[in-house]
Amino acid sequence: MSLTSIDAHSSHILDNPAWAALTGPHARFAERHGRAARYQQDVAPFHALCDEDDPRAWADLAALIGPGGTAAVRSVTEAAAGWEVVSTGHGVQLVDTSLRAEHDPGAVRLGPDDVPEILDLVARTEPGPYLPRTVELGAYLGIRYQGRLIALAGERLHPPGWTEISAVCTDPAHRGRGLATRLVRAVAAGIRERGERPFLHAAATNANAIRLYESIGFTLRRHTAFSLVQHTGAAALEETA
Predict the structure, then answer these.
(1) Residues 203/54, Cβ–Cβ less than 8 Å
(2) What keywords does the record list, in alphabetical order (predicted)?
């Protein structure tokens, strides 16, 4: 697998996309305390700090989740006082550089009534976390065969000017037919029509997915990591100005 990194600099909005989304286009889904925020718990499992090096942000996160609470944040090598790193995962972030985006007449818009089928497909294919209200984050498209949902893709994180394509999955019995590519192109078409640029994430170990995304016009921007952290302090630190 050959990857070429682009645009990798520390000040880019995609370096902290959850924070940019929660304090921007997705503010209506946010629970926020000062310098920390998270998605409503039935929408998405992500938390964000404005700056992982700022002790005040960690104090705000502690106040947000409470003693003993856990949070999924950008990776930290050493958590702040009163916190423990439970686990760390690694991934890649890719951005659209030459994707051919196009609407697909065979794709249908999915909504709240489709959530049970979506959750069933996600459980069987494991594309990443998907909760009962994730469908509200943006346009989710599916392909059906004989009335049954067999493939899915949609919009998740939404930093200003960008939209993440996520939950890309296909029923194992229907793989190899290009359904994922069709849906990624279709979701991207809607993103482009808003004047925004698609991006996505994949597990660093998912070589097949990364290869597919590269082949259709995505380019690696950066390697990513996230940490599951637990608040071990008895109470949140008092915020200082």
Answers:
(1) no
(2) Acyltransferase, Transferase
79's tokens: 């958590």
What's the pTM? 0.91
63, 181, 204 from 224: Cα distances, Å: 26, 23, 8
- Per residue, the 3-state secondary structure of the chain, as one string, reads CCCCCCCCCCCCHHHCHHHHHHCCCCHHHEEEECCEEEECCCCCCEEEECCCCCHHHHHHHHHHHCCCCEEEEECCCCCCCCEEEEEEEEEEEEEECCCCCCCCCCCEEECHHHHHHHHHHHHHHCCCCCCCCHHHHCCEEEEEECCEEEEEEEECCCCCCEEEEEEEEECHHHCCCCHHHHHHHHHHHHHHHCCCEEEEEEECCCHHHHHHHHHCCEEEEEEEEEEEEEECCCCCCCCCC
Q: How confident is the model at residue 79 (pLDDT cuts 50, 70, 90)?
A: confident
Is there a single domain that holds both residue 216 and residue 108? yes
User: How many domains are contained in the chain?
Assistant: 2
Range of the domain at 47: 13-91+225-231
Q: Could you tell me if 57 and 229 are in contact, meaning their C-beta atoms sit under 8 angstroms apart? A: no
Q: Do 131 and 218 belong to one domain?
A: yes
Give the pLDDT confidence score for residue 7 in this predicted structure: 43
Calpha distance 17→23 (Å, rounded): 10
- Whether 157 and 101 share a structural domain: yes
Predicted pLDDT at 161: 98
Instruction: Provide φ and ψ at 76, rounded to 5°.
Output: -125, 140
